[in-house]
Amino acid sequence: MLEDVAPCADVVLRETDGQLSSPSLVMTTVAIPSHMGSPAVPVLKSFLAGSLSGTCSALLFQPLDLVKTRVQSSVTTGKGHTGIVSVVINVLKQENITGLWRGVVPTITRCVPGVGIYFSLVHTLKTHFGSGNTNPLESLLIGATARGTAATIMHPISVLKTRYESGIYNYNSIPRSLFLIYSTEGKAGLFSGLAPTIARDVPFSALYFMFYTQIKSFLPYDKIDEHYIPVIHFNIGIIAGLLASFITQPADVMKTHMQLNPQKHTNLKDVITFIYQRDGLVGFQRGFVPRALRRCLMAAMAWTVYEQMMKGFGLAT
Predict the structure, then answer these.
(1) Any long-range contacts for 214-220 (C-beta under 8 Å, 24+ apart)?
(2) Is the pLDDT of residue 286 over 90?
(3) Distance (Å, rounded) from C-alpha 27 to C-alpha 14?
(4) What span, in angstroms and rounded, lies between the C-alpha atoms of 14 and 25?
(5) Of 77, 112, 169, 170, which residue has the fewest beta carbons closer than 10 angstroms?
(6) What is the pLDDT of residue 87?
(7) pTM attached to this predicted model
(8) pLDDT tens-place string over residues 77-123
(9) Closest by Cα among 263, 257, 264, 112 to 184
(10) What CA–CA distance (Å, rounded) separates 254 from 7?
(11) How far is CA 232 from the centre of its chain?
């Protein structure tokens, strides 16, 4: 049976000239059976790495998410078609520069556990169910399962985040706001827009993870200076994010409308009809630029930080 060797500190009393000296610590090794090692440790490390990477990227790119939400919500609020520049100027005039980070608290509240859950599930699925050399189909399934689980668990916070960013709702406390939504709209309010969120996040993560892992598989790591690897991973993340963002943008538009006006848009058919009648096919790509920038940069940074932290932990990604 294979065994792990772990250091152990022993207290030793040394005899000097017939007298006992003060106790000293001596490092010895104790053989620990491999089955005694906790399998939860790698999962916890991947959770911590994912949470930190998600927090960093969320803080940096929150303004892009706010702009995207307000560009999409301008139709719902009756303001007509509002462009990116108009939204930024309006926020700076009315709310100062800090207004661009409105909704950052629920974003962090969602990202810290949400991204941690996602990365720990990715690590677990790859370790226990993967073939070791992840193929495109495995990548799709792993990315989809991890994101679908994390998105469903954290969806009430996602609803709150969208409403914070829209400027329509005057929420000022996460617990109080969640209780208000539940008391006035019930569970349906907390999970409004779940269907398009799943339709957006699951394909995005599945496609992103597939593109990311497959592009990485072509890299000759033995010929690349390790100092350049984080930069290479970041650029791969940008490419994967652009491809995945374009495919899933319509679901993001539908999600925003359903979360901001759940009474009006009660199902996918209603919201699809509304968007198409109002803007045609172009309406399903509203807010693509800020969302693509945010998702690409966030995902690229999150994966880069995650990979570096996991490398520091001595774990494979």
Answers:
(1) 214/136, 214/139, 215/239, 215/240
(2) no
(3) 15
(4) 11
(5) 170
(6) 87
(7) 0.65
(8) 555 567 788 888 989 999 889 888 888 888 888 888 888 899 899 98
(9) 263
(10) 56
(11) 20
Q: Distance (Å, rounded) from C-alpha 132 to C-alpha 289?
A: 36
d(CA 167, CA 145): 33
> 3-state SS of the chain?
CCEEEEEEEEEECCEECCEECCCEEEEEEEEEEHHHCCCHHHHHHHHHHHHHHHHHHHHHHHHHHHHHHHHHHHHHCCCCCCCHHHHHHHHHHHHCHHHHHCCHHHHHHHHHHHHHHHHHHHHHHHHHHCCCCCCHHHHHHHHHHHHHHHHHHCHHHHHHHHHHHHCCCCCCCHHHHHHHHHHHHHHHHHCCCHHHHHHHHHHHHHHHHHHHHHHHHCCCHHHCCHHHHHHHHHHHHHHHHHHHHHHHHHHHHHHHHHHHCCCCCCCHHHHHHHHHHHHHHHHHHCCHHHHHHHHHHHHHHHHHHHHHHHHHHCCCC
Exposed e or buried b per residue across 19-46, where buried means at least 16 C-beta atoms within 10 angstroms of its C-beta: eeeeeeeeeeeeeeeeeeeeeeebbebb
Chain-centroid distance of CA 20 in Å reads 58
Task: Please compute the mean of the pLDDT values over residues 272-285 and round it to a whole number.
Answer: 89
Lowest average pLDDT, out of 16-25, 253-262, 294-303, goes to 16-25
Token pair of 124 as six digits: 């677990």
Average pLDDT over residues 116-138: 84
Compute the radius of gyration of the chain from its Cα atoms: 24
Q: Which domains does the chain have, with CATH numbers?
A: 1-37 (no CATH), 39-313 (1.50.40.10)
Q: Once rounded to an integer, what is the mean pLDDT over residues 257-283?
A: 87
